Amino acid sequence: MTTTAPAPGTVDRPRTLPRRLVGRVAVAAGQLVAVSVIVFALTAALPGDTAEVVLGQQATPEQVAALRAQLGLDRPVLLRFADWVGGVLTGDPGRSLVTGVPVADELAGRLASTASVAGLALLVIVPVALAAGVTAGRRPGSVTDRVITAVATAGQAIPEFASGLVLVAVFAVTLGWLPATAGGGSFTGPAVLVLPVVVLALNQVGRLARQIRIGVVETERAEYVVHLRRLGMGERTLLLRHVLPGALPPTVQQLARVVDGLLGGVVVVEALFALPGVGAGFVEAVQGRDLPLVQGYALLFATTTVVVNLLADLVSDRLAPHREALR
Amino acid sequence: MSEGRPTRRTVLAGALGTGVALGAASLLSGCGSAASDDRLRVAFAGGGSRENLDPHVVLNYVDQARAKACFDTLSCWSEDMGAVPRLAESWEVDPTGTRWRIHLRDARFHDGRPLTPDDVLYTFRRIADPATGATAAKLFTTVDLTASRALGPRDVEVVLTAPNFLFPLAWAAPGAEIVPRGTTSFERPVGTGPFRWVSFSPGGPALYSANPDHWGGAPPSRELEFVPVDEEQGRVGALLSGQVAYAFDLRASSAVSLGTDSRAKVLSAPGSASQFLYLRVDRPPFVDPRLREAVRLGLDRQALVRVVLLGKGQVGNDLFGQGAQYYDTAPPQVTRDVEQATALVAQAGATGSRIELQTSTADPIYQAAAGVIAQQLGEIGLQVVPRTLPPDSYYATIRSQGVSSVSSVGSLPLPDYIGRRMVSSATARNFTGYRDPQIDALSAAAVATPNEADRVASYSRAQELIRASSGMLVWAAADMHVGIAADLGGVEVARPNTDRWARFDRARLG
C-alpha cells in the first residue's frame, strides 16, 4: 500500500460537515440492513415457530401444520425475508403473525409508555450526573470525589433487575409509598413511573457522571484554564465558560451510549414493572417468533441507536470549536 | 461565525428545550385515570397480545379465570374432580349412555335474553367445530348435533354417537362455557356469568362490573379487574403493596415468606400440579425397560419434594391425579433403592452414559427439579445433563426431540386425563412416545359402562399399565399457591380448574 503526498501547492482539505453527514448516513443505512439480516436469521433459527406458540401445548401436529401454511411459515426463509424487505421499502413493514395488527400500529401503541420512562430517566440522569461529575472532577482525589466515584461505580455494577427488586421491596412493599407494578396498564399516573425511572437512572447516571468527571479533571489541568485562574478569573465564570464547554464533547458521546443503555435497560424494567412498552413488546414478539414484529422492534431500536449516535457526533463536532482548525 | 450555522449555545439550548419538552410529554402521557378503590383487583400472569376473550379457547389460567367471571358452564368440577351442577340444574341419562336430558337453570345473559337449549346446542357445535380451535373440542366430538334437540324452554336432550356415562365431566372442562346462540365475536362478550364485560385490551387489563341479575346473586364486589403481571415477584409486590387483593400462582419460596406477613394470607391447594419426569420409551436409551426401572428406583422423591417444592407438595407414586376420583391408591409407594437401580443401569450397559434432560424456565419448578434429578441419577451411574430450552416452544420441542424431560400437568379428572392424553389419538401431548391399544379400550369401556365398579376396575387397570410402561414418572403433586390480602374474604382453597377456584363472585374485601 502506498501513500501519495499532496501535490505542491494543493491543500489536503478536510471533509466538510455535509459530506461527513452523507457518509455517516450511508454507514447507518448499512448498519440497519445488517441488523435486520442478523435479527431475521437469529429469530428464524430459534426452535419453534409462531404456529406452535399460538396454538399452545394441546395443538396436534396437523393443526400446527395447517396454521403454519396459513401464515406462510412453510415458505423458504429467504423468500419471507425478501417479502419483508420489499414491504419495508414500500412503507409496509407487515402485520403481526400473532394478532394481525399492523407492525407500525403495534410499535406506535407501545412507544408512548417507553418514551415516558426513558425520557424521564434522561431528565433525571443528566442533571444528577452533571452535578456529581463536576463536583467530583473539581476536587480530584478528595473524599467527595472518592465517594461519588464509588457510588457511581456501584450504580453501574448493580443490574436493573436486582436494583428493581430491592427498590420495590423497600418503597412499595415495606414503606408502601409507591406502586410495585403498572399491571400492564392497570395502574397509571406519575407515581407508577417513579420506581422504573429510578431503576433506569441508577444504572446509567454513574456512567455519565464518571465521564463528566474525567472531562472536568482534564480541562481543569489544561494550560489555558490554569492561566485564567492565575489571572484571577472567578471560579463560577471559569466553570461555566471554560471548564464545562471543554468537558462536554466527550460527554455527549457518552450520553449517546447512555441512551443505548436505556434502551437495553427498558426491556428489563418493563418486564419487572409490567409496563406495556416496546421493551416488553419486543420480548413478547421474540417469544412468539413473530418475525415481522421482531424485525419492526429491531429496526426501531437500531434506528434509535444509529440516530442518537449520529446526533451525538454532530453535536460533539459543533461543541469542539477547534476541531476544524486542528485538521 | 457564519450566519445560519448553529452555535454551541443554540445547540445546548436546543438540547435542553428538547429534554424539557420530552419530559413534559412523558409526565402527561404517564397520567391517567385514578384507580377506583371500590374494585377487586386480581393479578395473573398474562397471555400477551395474542389474548382474546373467546371462552372456548383458554390457553392460560388467566383465560379460564376471565371466562369464569363472564360466563358459566353447565357443570363444574368438584375438588375430587367429579361433576357438580351449575347452569345445568339437573340431568339424567338413558340406559345406553347416549341420551342425556339436561334441565337448565333459570338464568339470563347479560343482555337480558334467557338461557335456552338452543344456546347449549350452539355452544356444543361451536366447541366441536375444528375451525374454532377450542380447548375442549375433543370432549364434544361424539355429540350428534342433528339428533340433539330442545325438549322445552329449559330442557335439552343431547344425543351422543357413543355411550358416555361421564359426559357431565366434559361440560365442566375449561373452555366449555355456554355462549349465546349465534355468537361469533367476543370483542364485547355476553355471558350468563356473575360479571359483565366492561373493557379489555389483549395483554393488558380486563375490567368487569358486577352482574346484579346473576342467578347466584349479585357479587359483593362492584367491579373486578384482572391485572396482568407476568413476573412472580411483581405479583407478590403488588399484593403486599395493596395494589391487588389476589395474586395467582406463587412460588413455594414466596408462599413460605408470605406465611409470616400479616398483610397477606396464602391459600395452598394440595395436589394441584403433578410433576413428571418423562422418559421416551420409543428411543434409546429408555427403550430399555431396565433403564426406566433404574431411573424409577433412582429417584429420591422425598428429597425432590423437600428441596424443589420446599416441602409444599405430596410425594408422587408415578400416577397422575392424587386426591381425584378413580386415582389408584393400591400400588405401594415407590421408594429409592440405589443399589438395585445401579445394578439395573449396569445390566443395561448404560453405566456412565450421558443423557440429556430437557428443562425450561416455562415453570419455576422445572430447572430446580432437573438439577436435583441429575444429581440423584448420577448416584446410580448415569451422567444426566440438564439442557434448558426456550419456554414458548418447550412443549413442542420435547414432543419431537430428546430422550427425557421434566414437565407438569394441572388438575384434571382422571377420565379426562386418560381420555385426552393417554389414548393413542392424543398425539399433541404425547411426550414419551407411549401408545397402548389397551388404554384406548379401557378408556372407552370405562365411560361406556353404567356400572361404577366396572369403571373403577377399568381405570385401575389403565393406571397399572401407564405406571408400568409409559415412561411417565410422577415424582410429586405440587401445591398451587395463591396469595390474598389479609382482609379478602370468600376466597377458598381450591385446585385450579375446579368450581371453587377463581370464584371472584364470592370474594369480599374488608
TL;DR of this structure?
Chain A is mainly alpha-helical and 327 residues long. Helices cover 75% and strands 0% of the residues of chain A.
Entry keywords:
heterodimer; A: 327 residues; mainly alpha; disordered N terminus; disordered C terminus; B: 510 residues; alpha+beta; nine-stranded mixed β-sheet; four-stranded antiparallel β-sheet; 30% helix; globular; TAT_signal (chain B); ABC transporter substrate-binding protein (chain B); SBP_5_dom (chain B); Peptide/Ni-bd (chain B)
Structure explained in plain terms:
Chain A is an all-alpha fold. Chain A contains 13 helices and no strands. In chain A, α10 runs antiparallel to α12 (291-319). The model of chain A is unreliable at 1-12 and 323-327 (pLDDT under 50). Chain B has 14 helices and 19 strands. Chain B has helices at residues 8-30, 61-70, 117-128, 167-171, 232-240, 252-258, 289-298, 301-308, 338-347, 364-378, 394-400, 414-422, 437-448, 452-469, and strands spanning 40-44, 75-77, 83-85, 88-93, 99-104, 149-152, 155-159, 195-200, 206-210, 223-228, 246-250, 264-279, 313-315, 354-360, 383-389, 404-409, 472-485, 488-489, 508-509. Chain B is globular. At the A-B interface, α2, α3, α5, α7 and α8 of A face α1, β10, α5 and α11 of B.
Task: Itemize the secondary structure elements and their pairings.
The complex is a heterodimer of chains A (327) and B (510).
Chain A: H1 17-45, H2 50-55, H3 61-71, H4 77-89, H5 103-138, H6 143-157, H7 160-174, H8 190-220, H9 223-230, H10 235-272, H11 278-287, H12 291-319, H13 323-326
Chain B: H1 8-30, E1 40-44, H2 61-70, E2 75-77, E3 83-85, E4 88-93, E5 99-104, H3 117-128, E6 149-152, E7 155-159, H4 167-171, E8 195-200, E9 206-210, E10 223-228, H5 232-240, E11 246-250, H6 252-258, E12 264-279, H7 289-298, H8 301-308, E13 313-315, H9 338-347, E14 354-360, H10 364-378, E15 383-389, H11 394-400, E16 404-409, H12 414-422, H13 437-448, H14 452-469, E17 472-485, E18 488-489, E19 508-509
Parallel strand pairs in B: 1-10, 1-11, 14-15
Antiparallel strand pairs in B: 2-3, 4-5, 5-7, 6-7, 8-9, 9-10, 11-17, 12-16, 12-17, 13-17, 18-19
Helix pairs in contact in B: 7-9, 12-13, 13-14
Protein name (chain B): ABC transporter substrate-binding protein
Subcellular location (chain B): Cell envelope
Family (chain B): Belongs to the bacterial solute-binding protein 5 family.
